[in-house]
Amino acid sequence: MPISELERKRQANIARNQLLLKDLELEKIKGNFYSELAPKKGRNLLKKVKRNQNRISAIPVRRSRRIAGVKLQDSQDDLNLPAENAKNRPWGDSDFSENLRLEGNLKLNDVLGNEPDTVERLRKSFYGKDHLGTVLEHEESKNCNDGDIVSLRDELGSLNLFKEFDPSKIRLTSQRMTSIQFHPYVDRKIVIGGDKTGQIGIWSTTDKKVISLGEDYYQDYEPVVTHLKLHGKNISRIQINAEEPKKVYSASYDGSVRCLDLGKLLSENIMSFDDATGTAEGITDINFVNPNVYYFTTLSGLFGQHDLRTPESTKEYKVLRCHDKKIGSFAINPSLSSQFTTASLDRSLRVWDLRKISTISLSQNKEPYSSPTCVGSFISKLSVSGTDWNGSGDIVCNGYANEINIFSKNSLSLPKSSYSSQRNINLANNGTADNLIPDHILKHNCQTGRWVSILKAKWQTNPSDGIEKFVIANMNRGFDVYCSDGRQVGDLRHALMNAVPAVNCFHPSQNWLVGGSASGKCYLFDNEKE
């Protein structure tokens, strides 16, 4: 096939272009270009270390516990060795074990160190009578009419947040507050709180110190709070008896109950409770029957009694089984000290009578503990966090079911040998029957979560106005106050409250309220005018 004229011109152009490229010597230029861009080899500045290949270890790097001679079951002395070493460390050592239970008595001069002014300030804050029983006689409760409720609402509505200091400056404890108590003094306000690390904070509202802001500014003041590290774990309860106002009792999850005697400036260890295996058993609550005897509950559901007059060498704690799970709170019947009510993690509220001890334990586990007679029971949808019993015979409880239940005295019979509801007289069978019916059910958000302490409703102990009322924290950063018939009489809030006052209480006789938050801040409402 003959080549066309167009194909002949194309081949001629290709030949001419190849000849031109050959004359330009592009291959030679290409080699020079890459040789100039090649990276230069630099000197390695890191010094090479020659490893000794003949290194021989004196002992094997990895050994089994059998070869090392370690016992698989350590003796009790070996288990107590870390605690013994921690006890021998100097006070205030940074390596001091935070979870260590303190044993024996401690002088406040030794605890506070070189702070003689603090010791003297504590002594002055707790001056006065050694007995307040005549001051705090329980007022007979009265039937509340609409006029009394309106008057109480006006009084609580007129309460003001403590005006002397910004609440952000009143740091009662260093960590999340787990317990708080108003001292029964009426001529001065003293608040005592405990946190999750075992620290106790004492704040007298009249104590303050001057802050220097320079010559061009006015002087400012800040509150003075005394901090004492007396426990190794969460302080679950703080108690003050009107018969002994200078003694502050505290219970902790480290298994100890201590008495802070501010008259003697001494912290006494009055109980160290261990379980059957010798491990510290956490104390969740304590309540005094009289100045010498108190009841206590534990994390494992035990109930016990302790007499302060028992010699140290012969102390034996009378322990009974009430629940298989944690007892978060309990309360004693003010009219009959042999009856008490417990709130447990097993979703039950139970009423017990100590005058008859059953030979059969209510526990599902095989154990030697006996149980008191269960004369009343209420089953909740979720765990019951707190319970309290007022002087008029009313019981309040709340829990994670987002309900506050009030059992009124008028619908509950209190015979000498049993405790039952008139609407359902069948007694509880081994604590499983649901024979208690609440008279008032209040909807309340109790979902605190992980970072806020558990909400617990608490009655005012000795109301001077004769009106039974309780307080519980509100998750919207406030206090809710209810009377015994379920009517809300108070809703206390303030713009400066930036946290939930989860742990709170009334003053035993006055209508003052105080609460503590997760950061250790304290919120006090009183009737002082702004």
What's the total count of β strands? 31
Just give the CATH class of the domain at 97-321 and 448-526: Mainly Beta
For the termini, the CA-CA separation is 117 Å
Name the beta content range.
25-35%
Low-confidence stretches: 89-96, 134-138, 414-431
Write up what this structure looks like:
- The protein is an alpha+beta fold.
- The protein has a domain at 97-321 and 448-526: Methylamine Dehydrogenase, Chain H (7 Propeller).
- 14% of the residues lie in helices and 34% in strands.
- It contains 7 helices and 31 strands.
- The strands form 8 sheets. The chain has a 5-stranded antiparallel sheet. A 4-stranded antiparallel sheet has the order 2-31-30-29, with no helix packed on it.
- Strand 9 and strand 10 form a beta hairpin.
Features:
34% strand; 4-stranded antiparallel β-sheet; Methylamine Dehydrogenase, Chain H; 530 residues; 5-stranded antiparallel β-sheet; alpha+beta; 31 strands; single chain; 7 helices; elongated; 14% helix
